[in-house]
Structures are given as structure tokens and as C-alpha cells.
């Protein structure tokens, strides 16, 4: 490094140890130079050589790159003298003399000379008043500055509190969103795991069921065929009950054969006696059947007559209404078609005709049965003619929505108006005849 003087070579002298008192060497005792320990030399760098300091730069370059003191002083803001801060709002700076100074006095007032107190005290009073005013202005300025600082600090604290509250709200919202996201992710993973477990369980059950379905049947069938599984009731029935049952059936069959031969003999005799009784009973039954047939025919005729009267009454009631509705809202072909369908349905609902008397019954009845058959009508009466009233037809058209309800309402209003007019005319004629 620059400024270090070169060190002498590492040499030393070997001498005997000295005592505390100084001893002079004798002429024959010369100091022998010896190499000193290099580890104690200050020029040797100790420690790791990797951490050795780099060589120093050139002093000429350092001096050329070093800035001048004037420029450095001009650029250094610490060396610039501080200025007076600007005045607060509503104030201004005033130049005052605050340093103490000595004035050169040319006159000396000796003790005993004349002294005008009012004239001499005026400068002192001016200084005192100026100092008091300056101190007052300074204190007022400080108070206003402190109040301004306090207001600014309070405003800063308010803004900072509002910002902290907003930051806390944002942090809370972000924390809630994060927790909700984690919860949703956890829920989705749990649901996926449950679905995967359920799918594996279903697949395992289906595989086990398919695998064991045929295996169990075949194994149990082989074991049952080999005789390892058997029904004790079935074996007892086969070994004990069936032989006993066969013997009992054979014995009962022999008894039944003897009884059957006896019963056949008795039956022949009873049949011979019962033929006469059956002929009389058959004749009586035939007469009862004919009487019941006549009564049912008369009841049906009365019912059909009542029905025909009702049909005539319905037809008389609904014909004007159907005639009023038919030309405007219903086609005549549709009316004929619906009437024909209703006639077919009514014809199919009629009771079937009475069957003829069986020939076997006539043979059993004998001559009396022939006479009764001759008196009976040769065939069943013809069914009555089916007539569909306009009221039934109108009801069927309404159920099938073939007639608009608006048209039906208009026809009803027209008929009611006509009947009301006819009733009013009849009342008027009756009153006129009465008067």
C-alpha cells in the first residue's frame, strides 16, 4: 500500500537470555543472524487466501476521479445553510434584530453629569417592547403551528383509521372468499371421493353377484345330487308315507269297486222310478218359464212405451233449440252422423232375445211339453224401433264440443225471448177476453 515503508529482511540475532539487569556482551559473543518466524510478520496475510483483499487502485486515477471540494460542497445538501420555513396561513415574516451588539460610544456620562431619564430610557423601552412583541408573535405563531399540526395529525389519524378499516374489510372479505373456496374445493373432493367409493362398491357388488350367481347354483346342485343336502320331510314321505299310502289306496280301491257295483244296481232301479217324476217336473218347469217370459215381455213393453213417451216429450222440447242452432253452428251431415251413432249404441244396449225351448227339455216333457211348445210363441218379439230425441242429440253434440257454447247461449236467449213474447201475448189475450 502507498505510504508503507519497505521492511528489512527477515533476519534476527541469536543471543542468550537476558536477565532483568542489563548485561553487556563480551567481545567474543557475537549475535548470530537467524530467520525469524514468518507467522509473526505483519506483511503476511492471515486466514484464507480466498478472502484476501484486492490490490489497491492507482492513486492517480483516484485523484482524477475525486470531485473538487467546491463542487462537492455545492451538491451536498447537508452543507447548505437552512432557510427560514415559510410562514403559516395568514402570517408573514418580519426581519428583527435579535443578536446583541455593542455600539461605539463617543460620549461618556460621568457621575454627576445631567441625566434625562425619559430620553435615555426610551431605547430600553423600545427594546423591551420589541422583545415582548417578538416573543408574543413567536408564541402565537407556535400555537397556531401546533394547532395546525394537531389538526393535520388528527386528519391523518382519521384517514389512517378509515384506510385500516377498509383494509380490514378487504382482508376479511378475502379471508371469507378463501375459506369459502377451500370449503368448496374440500366439498368437491369429498363428493368425488364418495362417488368413486360408491362406484367401486357398486361395481364390486355387481361383479360378485355375477360371479357367485352361477357358482352357487352349480355347487348346491352338485351337492344335492351327491346326496349331501336332502329334505328330511321329503325323505320321510318317500320312505315311510308313500308305501303306507299305496297300501291304503289299494285297500280302499277294492272297497270302492264293491260299493260301485252295488251303487250301479241301485242307480238303475232309482232311474227307472225317477223318469216318471222327472217328466212331470219338466212340464211344470216349462210352464213356469213361459209364464215368466210373458211377464217379462209385458214389463218390457210397458217400459218401452214409457221410454217412447219420454222421447216424444224430449223431442218436443229440444227440437226448436236444435233447429235454432243447427243452421248457423252445426252441419246437417254432422247431426245425421251423430244420430246414427247414438242409434247404434242404443241398439247394442238392448237385451238379447229369449232363446227357444231346448229340444231335450221337450223330449223329457213328452206330450205335455209338445202342447206347451205349440202354445208358446214361435220366436221372440221384434225389438222396438230406436228413436233418438233431439235433447239426447243436443247433449251428445255438447259433450263432443261440436256446438259452440256461444251459439247455444244465443239460441237459448232467442227461444226464451220467443217464449216470453208468446206468454206475454197469451196474458194480454186472456186479459182482453176477461174484460
UniProtKB/TrEMBL annotation:
Keywords: Cell projection, Cilium, Coiled coil, Cytoplasm, Cytoskeleton, Flagellum, Phosphoprotein
Compositional bias (Pro residues): 79-88
UniProt region (Disordered), positions on chain: 1-91, 366-385
Subcellular location, record wording: Cytoplasm, Cytoskeleton, Flagellum axoneme
Polar residues composition bias: residue spans: 13-24
Location, primary (coarse class): cytoplasm
Coiled-coil stretches: 163-205
Assigned protein family: Belongs to the flagellar radial spoke RSP3 family.
Protein name as annotated: Radial spoke protein 3
Protein source organism: Apatococcus fuscideae
Lineage per the UniProt record: Eukaryota, Viridiplantae, Chlorophyta, core chlorophytes, Trebouxiophyceae
Amino acid at each position: 500500500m502507498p505510504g508503507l515503508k519497505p521492511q528489512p529482511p527477515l533476519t534476527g540475532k541469536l543471543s542468550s537470555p537476558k536477565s532483568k539487569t542489563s548485561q553487556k556482551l563480551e567481545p567474543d559473543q557475537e549475535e548470530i543472524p537467524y530467520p525469524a518466524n514468518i507467522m509473526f510478520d505483519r506483511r503476511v496475510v492471515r486466514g484464507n487466501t480466498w478472502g484476501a483483499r484486492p490490490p489497491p487502485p492507482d492513486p492517480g486515477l483516484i485523484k482524477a476521479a475525486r470531485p473538487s471540494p467546491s463542487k462537492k460542497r455545492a451538491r451536498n445538501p447537508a452543507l447548505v445553510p437552512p432557510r427560514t420555513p415559510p410562514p403559516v396561513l395568514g402570517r408573514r415574516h418580519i426581519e428583527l434584530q435579535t443578536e446583541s451588539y455593542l455600539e461605539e460610544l463617543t460620549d461618556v456620562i460621568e457621575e454627576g453629569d445631567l441625566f434625562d431619564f425619559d430620553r435615555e430610557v426610551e431605547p430600553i423601552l423600545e427594546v423591551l417592547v420589541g422583545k415582548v412583541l417578538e416573543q408574543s408573535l413567536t408564541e402565537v405563531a407556535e400555537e397556531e403551528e401546533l394547532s395546525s399540526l394537531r389538526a393535520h395529525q388528527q386528519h391523518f389519524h382519521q384517514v389512517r383509521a378509515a384506510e385500516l378499516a377498509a383494509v380490514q374489510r378487504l382482508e376479511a372479505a378475502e379471508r371469507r372468499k378463501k375459506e369459502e373456496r377451500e370449503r368448496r374445493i374440500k366439498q368437491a373432493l369429498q363428493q368425488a371421493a364418495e362417488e368413486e367409493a360408491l362406484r367401486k362398491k357398486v361395481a364390486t357388488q355387481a361383479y360378485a353377484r355375477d360371479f357367485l350367481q352361477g357358482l352357487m347354483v352349480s355347487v348346491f346342485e352338485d351337492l344335492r345330487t351327491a346326496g349331501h343336502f336332502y329334505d328330511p320331510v321329503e325323505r320321510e314321505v318317500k320312505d315311510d308315507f308313500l308305501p303306507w299310502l299305496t297300501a291304503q289306496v289299494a285297500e280302499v280301491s277294492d272297497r270302492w269297486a264293491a260299493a260301485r257295483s252295488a251303487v250301479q244296481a241301485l242307480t238303475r232301479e232309482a232311474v227307472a222310478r225317477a223318469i216318471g217324476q222327472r217328466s212331470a217336473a219338466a212340464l211344470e218347469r216349462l210352464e213356469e218359464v213361459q209364464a215368466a217370459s210373458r211377464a217379462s215381455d209385458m214389463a218390457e213393453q210397458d217400459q218401452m212405451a214409457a221410454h217412447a213417451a219420454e222421447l216424444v216429450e224430449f223431442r218436443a222440447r229440444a227440437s226448436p233449440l236444435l233447429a235454432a242452432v243447427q243452421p248457423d253452428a252445426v252441419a246437417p251431415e254432422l247431426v245425421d252422423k251423430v244420430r246414427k251413432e247414438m242409434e247404434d249404441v242404443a241398439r247394442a244396449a238392448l237385451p238379447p232375445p229369449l232363446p227357444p225351448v231346448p229340444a231335450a227339455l221337450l223330449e223329457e216333457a213328452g206330450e205335455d211339453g209338445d202342447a206347451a211348445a205349440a202354445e208358446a210363441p214361435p220366436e221372440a218379439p221384434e225389438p222396438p224401433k230406436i228413436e233418438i230425441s233431439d235433447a239426447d242429440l243436443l247433449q251428445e253434440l255438447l259433450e263432443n264440443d261440436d256446438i259452440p257454447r256461444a251459439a247455444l247461449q244465443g239460441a237459448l236467449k232467442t227461444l226464451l225471448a220467443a217464449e216470453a213474447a208468446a206468454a206475454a201475448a197469451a196474458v194480454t189475450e186472456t186479459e182482453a177476453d176477461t174484460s
